[in-house]
Design goal:
single chain; 5 helices; mainly alpha
């Protein structure tokens, strides 16, 4: 169902705005996706993972004593979201 809607383009904006798929479900989706839907999923997830990687880098940096005065942002729980994305846990509570 998801792949059909992505292929038709009807869910693409909503997908981009979402947390995306966890890694186990992404693998399943990519295995069965038509070429156009596969390209979309690969690009969308690549962007999502790049953003998460940036937040993880910021989290690590802000745990350095030299930057402890900087305010926390969305990077505060990036490690939880990364673990959930990899493990197949719900991304949102």
């Amino acid at each position: 169902m998801l792949l059909e809607h992505l292929q038709a383009g009807t869910l693409r904006e909503e997908y981009v705005a979402s947390g995306g798929l966890c890694l186990p479900h992404l693998r399943v989706a990519l295995a069965g996706a038509p070429a156009e839907a596969r390209r979309f999923l690969e690009a969308a997830e690549s962007d999502k993972l790049a953003g998460l990687r940036e937040e993880l880098s910021d989290l690590i940096r802000k745990n350095d004593y030299r930057f402890r005065e900087e305010p926390w942002g969305p990077e505060r729980d990036a490690w939880i979201r990364a673990a959930r994305k990899l493990a197949g846990e719900p991304l949102e509570e």
